[in-house]
Amino acid sequence: GGSQLRLWRRSKAGWPQEDVAVITAVEQHPDFEVTDQPFAFVNGQDSRLAIVTANGLLILSTRKAEIEKMIPIASVSGHRPPCVFSPDGKWLLMGDGDGTVWAASLVSLDSKPLKFEAHPGPIAGLAMSPNGRYLATIGEHNRLRAWRVDGFLKR
Questions:
Q1: Do 104 and 113 meet the contact criterion of CB atoms below 8 Å apart?
Q2: Which residues sit opposite 86 in a β-bridge?
Q3: All domains of the chain, ordered by start, with CATH?
């Protein structure tokens, strides 16, 4: 049982008849978190995949079919915080129970996350514009806010 992550590689002959299981060990099966965007290719490239799981952020090497890193993400009231990947795959933005937006770099995994105060209470949802310029946040107090974040994310 459990979740299973599979990766297909397309050759010149087309799609293979059989898939390639990327994570096969039972203890490595990620418990996927249901979000609007549960995974994204890192930095717009095809060699690394960032996946939001119940245990945190999993970075997967698609070339080696191995987990490169597992980054814990704090829960909010026992649930995964609302999060969204930037369109270029360079950032994971998350909202917490205190109204703070956190931006974790997917390019530099060991760097400290950026943050800013967005709401006076818990953040209920996040959405990013297709060009990555704006982030929309909604707080549990039913206030929707839009933030220009393209300069903030270039720090």
A1: yes
A2: none
A3: 6-154 (2.130.10.10)
CA atoms within 13 A on the CB side of 32: 13
38 and 50 Cβ atoms separated by less than 8 Å: no
Q: What average pLDDT does range 142-149 have in this prediction?
A: 94
DSSP string, the chain: -----EE---BTTBS-SS-EES--SGGG---B---SS-EEEGGG-SSEEEEEETTEEEEEETTTTEEEEEE----BTTBPPPEEE-TTSSEEEEE-TTSEEEEEESSSTTSPPEEEE--SS-EEEEEE-TTSSEEEEEETTS-EEEEE-TTGGG-
Note if the pTM is more than 0.90.
no
Looking at the DSSP bridge assignments, the partners of residue 137 are: 126, 145
In angstroms, the Cα distances linking 22 to 123, 137, 153 are 34, 34, 31
Report residue 153 as tokens. 């994310």
pLDDT digits (tens, 9 = 90+) for 39-56: 788 877 778 888 887 777
- CA torsion sign for 27, 69, 50, 35 is positive
Closest to 6 in 3D by CA, of 18, 22, 17: 22
